[in-house]
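Field: COMPLEX_INPUT
Field: COMPONENT_COUNT = two
Field: RESIDUE_TOTAL = 956
Field: MODE = joint
Values follow.
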Amino acid sequence: MNNKEFVKEITNIEEDFAKWYTDIVVKADLADYTGAKGFIAIKPYGYSIWENIQQYADKKFKEQGIQNVYFPSLIPESLLNKEKEHVEGFAPEVAWVTQGGTEKLEEKLCIRPTSETIFCMQFEKDLNSWRDLPIKYNQWCNVIRWEKETRPFLRSREFLWQEGHTIHETKEEAESLTRRMLDIYGNVVEELLAVPVLKGKKTEKEKFAGAEDTYTVEILMHDGRALQAGTSHYFGQNFTKAFNIKFQNRDGKDEYPYQTSWGISTRLIGGVIMAHGDNRGLKLPPKLAPIQVVIIPIAAHKENVLEKSQNIYEELNKKYRTKLDLRDNYTTGYKFNDWELRGVPIRLEIGPRDIENNTCVLVRRDTLEKTIVELNNLEEKIEELLKNIQINMYNECAKRVKERTNIAHDLTEFEKNIEQNQGYIKTMWCGRTECEEKIKELTGAHSRCIPFEQENIGKTCVCCGEEAKHMVIWGRQY
Amino acid sequence: MNNKEFVKEITNIEEDFAKWYTDIVVKADLADYTGAKGFIAIKPYGYSIWENIQQYADKKFKEQGIQNVYFPSLIPESLLNKEKEHVEGFAPEVAWVTQGGTEKLEEKLCIRPTSETIFCMQFEKDLNSWRDLPIKYNQWCNVIRWEKETRPFLRSREFLWQEGHTIHETKEEAESLTRRMLDIYGNVVEELLAVPVLKGKKTEKEKFAGAEDTYTVEILMHDGRALQAGTSHYFGQNFTKAFNIKFQNRDGKDEYPYQTSWGISTRLIGGVIMAHGDNRGLKLPPKLAPIQVVIIPIAAHKENVLEKSQNIYEELNKKYRTKLDLRDNYTTGYKFNDWELRGVPIRLEIGPRDIENNTCVLVRRDTLEKTIVELNNLEEKIEELLKNIQINMYNECAKRVKERTNIAHDLTEFEKNIEQNQGYIKTMWCGRTECEEKIKELTGAHSRCIPFEQENIGKTCVCCGEEAKHMVIWGRQY
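Field: COMPLEX_OUTPUT
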């Protein structure tokens, strides 16, 4: 096939964003559909992205004294039922195991949709005194939620994530940990994924089933829809009371500890695709990219080309995640498109003329800009370019957030803005769920959060016109 | 509690090895039982051991060009049924999901007991030409097998493992990969876990459901029982034919590829406990230990002790996994016992007199030998000691294997030997399953493997007296 045909295979991003997205997932070989609805196979290229996220986040968790564990994946029904709001939130979307081997189970078990209940069971056994606190656990695992509408990475029936669960002596300590983990998520998304985040608190309606407060980092996609990228929950004593988890405090009295939980998932891979991608395919920020530099020999049959490419590969690969594309059954043009589709930040081209001049060509994926570089300066130049690409990709997203954020003072303005320029809508709000629901019905937008950074944009609720309590940011969502 | 009481809490290893084992699991805080039979909670100390195994093995896999992926955990019944021997082997021990959310499933799904079928489904979709081969995938994940008899780590209903799945153009390449992965497992167990392995091929009776050949690394426990530590399977074209996985070969003709799979699991943690432990508790080889050096300040209230301990901690922790035990609600004696129970390779004691002399005391967990060390030489001395402990622990196990290996030429000798000195029994064997079953019935020993290193110990089968085909090693098992 020729290059044009190859490029044509991806749906145009402006014409059908949803189809563009699934094209990228499959054609960039990140994941594939399987026979079972909502279950995807995460392939090596997609999984490497996840490994990079894991490594980055896990290191930050460990710096906070958080310890990894692995707890059972199956939860007895009676255990799930212990916290009322939690079971109401999750029971409708769990998968139930009713038979083990040849034996019909007396009590059915659900596959964890999240593990608050299992962790509570263990906390109850382990906790005795204030000296045991805080307990700060995390696990990297799979979870299952029987979603009706599914989409690879964004809403799969099975996904990978980490779930942190901690208990603390005081409310203040637990709240502070909740916020600190949110900051870490913000850092993962901004520093590693090169996507700016909106941070804030979820409304009553949008918070996690069983939580007192849910904090969120939200990101804005290419089409102006929002994605919840990570959440951190403060539970107060809701679960510890329901599970009768007690400790002897410093005064020798029994007390319930304060609890948190927090998670990020393979959904972030979907976020990266939709925040950065374009009509050529995926665009990966250098820090996250499984391959940072791809070397493509030009006229590889000519003298010295292969040897030189190999040398450069060996040098660069010591410092950067480098790939040398030696496939002999594809044209150079095909290879260019293929690696652009896969979003590799830098393409390095080297052919006979370059070798003569002791140079090579670097092409950056984000701007497609070409530079001729002296081989003597290559490492330095690549270092610099990777840094610039990371920053530029972040800035491009930040620019979009700015362009796609509008203020609305009443519902007419809200509707008009979100129709004309889908994105974040900033409004004042009275705090009542009634108004929140009305806005959703009318505009399709959910509240994203009550941002930590409140601004002075008015005094009355965008919906009912009564006295406002908070500034809220709204958006249609994935 | 005082020190003696503390030590008493562990069952004597010679009196009741099974109870000693579960004591260690729980009291060294590796894992805990949960409400659901056969499901354990792997706690931070146990999970760190697993993380060290993962890191070590994963690096070796990647050096072999093996790529990590994540495939669905639920397998439709029809898919599991595709390979006859495989389904017969696994169907009796899987957990079945029959309901998803509010919907009763049309086809029930099993939670993976292993994922050959799921990988085959993907191979069928992905494979076109010989140019796509080999495909070498691995996943780190949980699996569920509904075992009747369960024991933490050794035989849990849920466990963590890695499962590698590869397909190849030729039989030779697949067989060679099968053996190479076995060698890597041998290396993990010998180099990291400090346990010598017995390597060989499983008999027809003991091989994996659906495999042509199963290779194994076996290890011998303190009580002379054997543990299968890792297996690597060569499938030939059994699955690729059943799943209709084809590729166009170099001659342009359709052909079925040759397949392998291989796995190690959290069972290895059980192996480490039972291979190295003693009446004081766990004994961890330095390369594997989550904590390599524990520093215990003596008379911590005295001048300079805490400060000096902190300084040493900061220096050592740069190079070794170090812990400074500052708990003020436990006696020094309690701490000594506690860290011995947890198997930390080196204990460093430092008190006022040591500080005066610019020395400290090092106590090695394997021999309990004490050395006074100049603080100026500390790092060097610790480096050396950790190396020695690793080697000594390996040698101790190797000595046991030697002492507990006996040759038998007939069944009487077999029975006598295994009763008097439980361990490996080396015999000649005719190759018939009939004899293998008779031996098992009579002695409780399973064939461990047909060792790669065959010896000349006779000409006739230990059971029927007819002409022998192989030397086999037998043992009672976990």
